[in-house]
Amino acid sequence: MSRSRTLLLALVGTLAYLGLAVLGRGGFMAFFSQPPLVALTLVLFVLSGLALFTRGNLSSGVREDRRNRWVLPVFGIIGLLSAFLPAYTDRLDVWTFGGDGLRWLGVFLFAVGGALRMWPVFVLGNRFSGLVAIQPGHELVTDGIYGMIRHPSYLGLMVASIGWALAFRSGVGLALVALTLPPLLARIQAEEALLRTEFGEEYEAYCARTSRLIPGLY
Question: What does pLDDT average to over the chain?
Answer without folding.
Answer: 91
